[in-house]
């Protein structure tokens, strides 16, 4: 979730200037680095991890259900920072810089460009899968979701999962409606994580 928090200032409009962002970012970076050094997190180090399109802490009961089943929703593809954003950073022209970086986000581009950005994001980190589905009903964000999933999965070979839901309103479903599907996805992710770990260990032994 910290990866999402780092990029929040690019997506949230404030009318109070940006002078305090630097101090807030320094505090957040320091806190994260300390937790990394201690190996602290929602689950033990090297636990299975899913990226997801929706923001995990905005649907906390779904996030908790996955954590309770041994899978961490650690990366949000919608607001995580792609590599292309870095080349537009210009402290002397901060507002222009932010505008240019905004157009490097999946939410601000075409579906094909969104696929390119998501591929960049999810191949930077060790992941066991990607979760979609909470914008299925949304004609802006989710209209081409299933086509997007097919493109990204074929290109990255990272398993993708689909969980139907309504990000904007959770009154239409309950945890009881989703828990069996969440458990099934979590089980599949853990199997993929185990197999991937065995394959990596085998490759390491072969090299030695």
Question: Whole-Å distance between the termini?
Answer: 36 Å
Give the uncertain stretches in residue-range form: none
Strand content: 5-15%
Quick one: how many beta strands? 4
Largest sheet features: 4 strands, parallel
The shape, in one word, is globular
Q: In order across it, which strands form the biggest sheet?
A: 2-1-3-4
Helix content: 40-55%
Structural class based on helices, strands and sheet pairing: alpha/beta
Put simply, the count of helices is 7
Using only CA atoms, what is the Rg? 18 Å
SSE order, one letter for each helix or strand: HHEHEHHEHEH
Q: Quick check: average pLDDT? A: 78
Briefly, what is this?
With 208 residues, this protein is of the alpha/beta class. It contains seven helices and four strands; from the N terminus they run ααβαβααβαβα.
Characterize the structure shown.
The protein is α/β, with parallel strands linked by helices. The chain is about 50% helix and about 10% strand. The protein is built from 7 helices and 4 strands, in the order ααβαβααβαβα. The protein has helices at about 1-5, 20-40, 60-70, 95-100, 110-120, 145-155, 175-205; strands at about 50, 70-75, 130, 160. The protein has a 4-stranded parallel sheet, sandwiched between helices. Helix 3 packs across helix 7. It is globular. The N and C termini lie far apart (about 35 Å). About 25% of the residues are buried.
Which features would summarize this protein structure in a list?
208 residues; alpha/beta; 7 helices; 4 strands; 48% helix
């Amino acid at each position: 979730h910290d990866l999402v928090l780092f990029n929040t200032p690019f997506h949230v409009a404030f009318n109070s200037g940006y002078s305090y962002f630097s101090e807030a970012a320094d505090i957040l970076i320091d806190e994260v680095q300390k937790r990394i050094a201690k190996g602290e997190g929602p689950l033990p180090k090297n636990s299975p991890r899913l990226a997801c399109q929706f923001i995990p802490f905005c649907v906390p009961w779904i996030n908790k259900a996955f954590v309770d089943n041994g899978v961490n929703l650690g990366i949000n593809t919608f607001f995580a920072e792609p590599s292309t954003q870095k080349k537009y950073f210009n402290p002397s022209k901060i507002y222009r810089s932010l505008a240019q970086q905004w157009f490097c986000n999946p939410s601000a581009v075409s579906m094909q460009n969104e696929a390119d950005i998501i591929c960049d994001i999810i191949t930077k980190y060790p992941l066991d899968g990607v979760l979609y589905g909470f914008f299925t009903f949304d004609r802006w964000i989710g209209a081409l979701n299933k086509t997007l999933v097919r493109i990204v999965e074929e290109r990255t070979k990272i398993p993708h999962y689909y969980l139907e839901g309504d990000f904007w309103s959770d009154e239409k479903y309950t945890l009881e409606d989703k828990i069996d599907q969440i458990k099934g996805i979590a089980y599949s992710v853990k199997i993929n994580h185990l197999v991937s770990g065995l394959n990596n260990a085998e490759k390491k032994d072969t090299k030695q």
